[in-house]
Design goal:
The protein has seven helices and no strands. It is mainly α and about 130 residues long. The chain has one domain.
Amino acid sequence: MSRIELKDTITNVIVKMAEGNPGAISTIMAILEQHDKIDPQATIGGIGVLLLLDTYEIYGTDIYVLFNDKCNRDVRQMLMLLRATQLGLFSSDKLKEMAYDQMGEINLTDDEWNALDDKVCDRLSDFQRVV
């Protein structure tokens, strides 16, 4: 069930999503700071990413695990993975499994990352390409 409500301020959203986890707070802040230059086509900016995480019920430690352990602390890679899921190019169940995997057993290969990246960039012409 979603936690974010229409009446929430951005501060309330961050608090709800991070669940007091400092790693999740720093991840959310990095997403909010960098989102517009990475994915300028997103209609509601970085808040849309938080709404996606809320929709997929990924909170607190799981946000940090997804960012730190699965996406190699790369905001672009995390945004790409979330957009791939939103676009139906990646399974939301697999996304959740990755976020919940604190033991590091579920990972994507370099080929899988590259294929997803190509698909997202093909669908979203302004999504920042890997340099």
